[in-house]
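If you are new to this repository, start here. Below is one unmodified record pulled from the training split, so you can see the exact layout before writing a loader.
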Amino acid sequence: MSSLSFLTIIRINVDFDAKGSVKFFTLTGGLIGVGLYGLSYTPAPFRGFLMVFYLALISGGLHLDGLADASDAFFSHRSRDEMLRIMKDSRIGTFGVLALFFVLLGKYLGFNAIRNPLFLIFIPIYGRFVAVYLMKKLPYARESGTAKSFFKKFDIWDFLGGFIFVALSFFLFDPALMGMLNASFFLWGFFLFSYFKRRIGGITGDMIGFAIEITELFMLLLGVFYGL
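And here is the target side for that same chain:
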């Protein structure tokens, strides 16, 4: 319930448990994906617009804000401390605007091109799964911040939901195809980990939002490429 309250605009009156919510990130992604699946039956090109709008709305723009702030920081080519300062700045710069434009445009085109609507359920799952992976592999980069309360010593239960959904994909789609797609996903996650570690040496809430957004785009376009 805490995961749903944090990752979406849906608020449930329970005691908020940041650390305990992490293991339900991928399940929350699946619930978000069900909404995408429902919208897949609307006619194109409205389908793509409605899906992009839905993802922005259901998350309260949280991940898009992270995408913009992190893009401004990464493409500034500044020092680590300067990049952290830029991410803290509420103002959006040129690179943030460009990142929002290209990611939203890419999603719009991808949503209109996808053939198997069932795959849409997995798009938000992959995004949240990579967030959990990065939160396990990287330390929090600030002394304090909103996302710091989610960090803890992780165990296998934090990943169980993600692995279940990955395993389920082999039964719902062509196993050979999903083998290549999921292998690409895990390589992508490692690439993000390596990039964040090299540039920042840790991770922030903005970087988590950045990772979720571009992973959703990456997996969506990969699904289109593989004919899903």
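Two things worth knowing about this chain: Residues 66 and 206 are 4 Å apart (CA to CA). Residues 2-225 form one domain.
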